[in-house]
Amino acid sequence: MRSRLNIQRDLPCMVTRLPDVTTAAVLGHLMSGLLCSLFPLRIVVLNVLFFSRFFSSVGVADGVGGWRDYGVDPSQFSATLMRTCERLVKEGRFVPSNPVGILTTSYYELLQNKVPLLGSSTACIVVLDRQSHQLHTANLGDSGFLVVRGGEVVHRSDEQQHYFNTPFQLSIAPPEAEGSVLSDSPEAADSSSFDVQLGDIILTATDGLFDNMPDYMILQELKKLKYTNYESIQQTAKSIAEQAHVLAYDPNYMSPFAQFANDNGLNVRGGKPDDITVLLSIVAEYTD
C-alpha cells in the first residue's frame, strides 16, 4: 500500500502577509471590518476573503504552507478558490441556505480547469439570508467563525482535524501524486444554520487567530466595541489581530495551539507565528 503524503501545517508556520487591505463596508445586514495582520518577512498570500453586497456573504481560505516544500506557491490555490466562490456568488449561482454548494461547485471547477493549479486549502463561508435572518455556514478545516450575543459565544464553527496540526483540506495534486496527497471532499464541510438577531457580532477568522487567542480574550476585545460605525468595527478587528500577532511571538505564553500540542504528547510552549485574518461583522439594518 502506498504511503500517504500528508501536507501538514508548518510548525511553526512560515511568516506570511496579506495584501494591505483595511476596508469596511455595509454588506446586506452585515456591517463589516477587516484586519489582516502583516508580517515583516516573506510576502505570501495564504488567506483570501470575499464579500458579496447582494447576498451578504463572506469567506476566508487559508492555503496550506507545507506545499512550499514541493516548490508550489501555497497562495495560488486558496486565492483561486475564493475568487471562484466570489464569482459564483455574484452571478447568483448558489442557494443562500447551502454554502457547502458554493464550495463544492468552486472546487470542482478548479479540478476541471485546464490551467495547472496545485495546492491545498481550508475554507470557511458564511452567508446571511436577508429574508429569513438565518446565518448559513460551511467550514472545512480549522478556519472558522464565532457568533457573539450579549458578550457570550452563542454559535461557532467546529474545527475539523484528521489529527494534530493536519486540518481537513481541499487539494489538487499532480497526476503522479493523486491518491497519495491528503484531500477531503468539499461535501465533508461542517454546515450549520442559525437564527441571528440585530446586534449579533460575527467574527470570521483563520486559524492564526484561534491558535493564539482563546475565546475569553476575544470576548474581552469585543466588549470594547461600543459603536457600530465603520471606524469602531475596524479598530476592534485591528485590536484583535494585533493582540493575536503579539501573542504568536511570545515564547512563554501557553497558547491554545501549545495546549493542543501538549494534549497530543508534544512538549510545546509559546504562541504560533502564523498568518492572521480577522473579519468582524455586525448584524444591522440594511441601508443603501
UniProtKB/TrEMBL annotation:
Stored PROSITE patterns: PPM_2
Keywords: Hydrolase, Magnesium, Manganese, Membrane, Metal-binding, Protein phosphatase, Transmembrane, Transmembrane helix
Start and end residues of each PPM-type phosphatase domain: 35-283
One Pfam assignment: SpoIIE
Cofactor: Mn(2+); Mg(2+)
GO molecular function: metal ion binding; protein serine/threonine phosphatase activity
UniProt GO cellular component terms: mitochondrion
Enzyme Commission numbers on file: 3.1.3.16
Catalytic reactions of this protein: O-phospho-L-threonyl-[protein] + H2O = L-threonyl-[protein] + phosphate; O-phospho-L-seryl-[protein] + H2O = L-seryl-[protein] + phosphate
Tree of life domain: Eukaryota
InterPro entries for the chain: PPM-type-like_dom_sf (IPR036457), PPM-type_phosphatase-like_dom (IPR001932), PPTC7 (IPR039123)
Segments passing through the bilayer: 21-41
PANTHER family from the UniProt entry: PROTEIN PHOSPHATASE 2C (PTHR12320), PROTEIN PHOSPHATASE PTC7 HOMOLOG (PTHR12320:SF40)
Similarity comment: Belongs to the PP2C family.
Annotated protein name in UniProt: Protein phosphatase
